[in-house]
Specification:
By secondary structure, the protein is mainly alpha-helical. It folds into 2 domains: about 55 residues, no CATH class; about 220 residues, MetI-like fold, CATH 1.10.3720.10. Helix content is about 70%, strand content about 5%. The chain contains 15 helices and 4 strands. The strands form 2 sheets. A two-stranded antiparallel ribbon has the order 1-2. A hairpin with a 2-residue loop joins strand 1 and strand 2. Helix 7 packs parallel to helix 13. The two termini are about 50 Å apart.
Length: about 300
């Protein structure tokens, strides 16, 4: 602590062109305390991003054999049917995952807002988000396995033919969206609960006095006033679907008949498994730029009330 104070005392007085500039001590101490985090961020974030861009212009293997090829990796991507298929699969997953995950937690938040023992219910709904997909994925695989899991036995008792949950390429994205909603609903509902708390009860009470029905109150009052929270939740879900890997890889492997091989899985298969780091880096750059564009337009203010 004494050493930090000594450093701060020396840095508070800076001589520039013969003029003494005195920097507030709290500013200097703040920068000193933040410097480890800044160094970690530069080394493990910006350095990796710059290296990724440089690698995308090189032919690079797992054993660091480098050869500059310019935009050849990007041309190869545009002519690669597997990449085009993964690009389309990523767009489908983004739309399905975002629609199924971002908006239902609002209904959960409304149900929890006035429920007795809501603190306990919040903990219960938040619990699935604590564990990783490495733990939860095998459980769901067991539950959804035809002719074996408890869900199959329930369908059999009811005399209903069980759907093929995990091996149907037409329904697999909806199944993954439901699983993502199950895991993230409690976490996302917290943002909606915060928005509902800031909204206050005066407007709703006035609408109730005026005879507005629950549907009218939802669409004309609650929904417009929670648009900022919807915007935040949508951005969170967008980032999760863009970078979605573990939930898809654990549940479906490299993809059900290649249907769910999104860009992250394609990058893993070609970069880590096949060893083509340059091509995988180019695909990662394109995915990175897609994420920036989606985040920019998603947070550009269209969710403001």
């Amino acid at each position: 602590m004494l050493a930090m104070r000594d450093v701060a005392n020396r840095l508070t007085k800076v001589r520039t062109h013969g003029v003494h500039l005195k920097i507030p001590r709290r500013v200097v101490i703040g920068w000193i305390l933040a410097s480890p985090a800044i160094v970690v961020f530069i080394v493990f974030k910006w350095y990796l991003i710059v290296s990724l861009f440089l690698n995308s212009f090189q032919q690079l293997g797992l054993f660091n054999q480098r050869h500059w090829v310019g935009f050849e990796n990007y041309r190869a991507l545009l002519n690669n049917p597997g990449f085009i298929h993964s690009f389309i699969a990523t767009l489908i997953w983004i739309v399905v995952g975002t629609v199924m995950t971002a908006f239902p937690p609002l209904l959960l938040a409304l149900a929890l807002q006035g429920a007795p023992g809501k603190a306990l219910w919040r903990a219960v709904y938040f619990l699935p988000g604590i564990f990783s997909w490495a733990m939860e994925g095998p459980i769901w695989i067991y539950l959804l396995t035809p002719n074996q899991g408890p869900i199959a036995k329930l369908f059999s008792m009811l005399g209903i033919t069980e759907p093929i949950w995990l091996n149907n390429p037409h329904d697999i994205f909806f199944v993954l969206g439901a699983l993502l909603l199950w895991q993230q609903a409690g976490f996302l509902a917290l943002f909606y609960l915060a928005g509902l708390a800031n909204m206050g009860t005066d407007v709703l009470e006035a609408a109730l006095v005026d005879g507005a029905s629950p549907v009218q109150r939802f669409f004309r009052i609650i929904l417009p006033l929670t648009l900022p929270s919807i915007g935040v939740v949508t951005l969170i879900v967008l980032s999760q679907t863009f970078s979605g890997f573990s939930e898809i890889y654990v549940v479906t492997g490299v993809g059900v008949y290649q249907t769910t091989q999104v860009l992250t899985l394609w990058i893993y298969s070609n970069g880590i498994v096949a060893g083509d780091i340059g091509l995988a880096s180019a695909a990662s750059v394109l995915l990175f730029l897609m994420t920036i564009v989606a985040t920019y337009f998603g947070g550009s203010g269209q969710f403001a009330p």
